[in-house]
Amino acid sequence: MITVIAEIKVKPGRREAVLAAIQALRPSVLAEDGCGEYTLLTDYKAQVPWRKTAPDSIFMLEQWKSIRHLEQHQQAQHMDEHRAHIRNDVVDVTFHILEKRTD
After folding, report:
1. Is 17 helix (H, G, I), strand (E, B) or coil?
2. Is the pTM of this model over 0.85?
């Protein structure tokens, strides 16, 4: 199992529109072979001095059975359509592909 944390940086004022698009996409992704989790996360408005804020970002927490499943997800038609739909609202996307360490 691999974990993906993706940060989707959006244009100011466009986060809610992109969140709605991802929510609409979510059932299709969860139905994909190998998908174990596809969760949206946004800033928690905590009053702590050490937190980094990201008011124009959406974070995705994803679990995939393998890198092959993640690659198939990235090539899925519904993902192409989704990216085309939000392309004018997104500034940048950063992916972190992680594995659980047991040592």
Report:
1. helix
2. yes
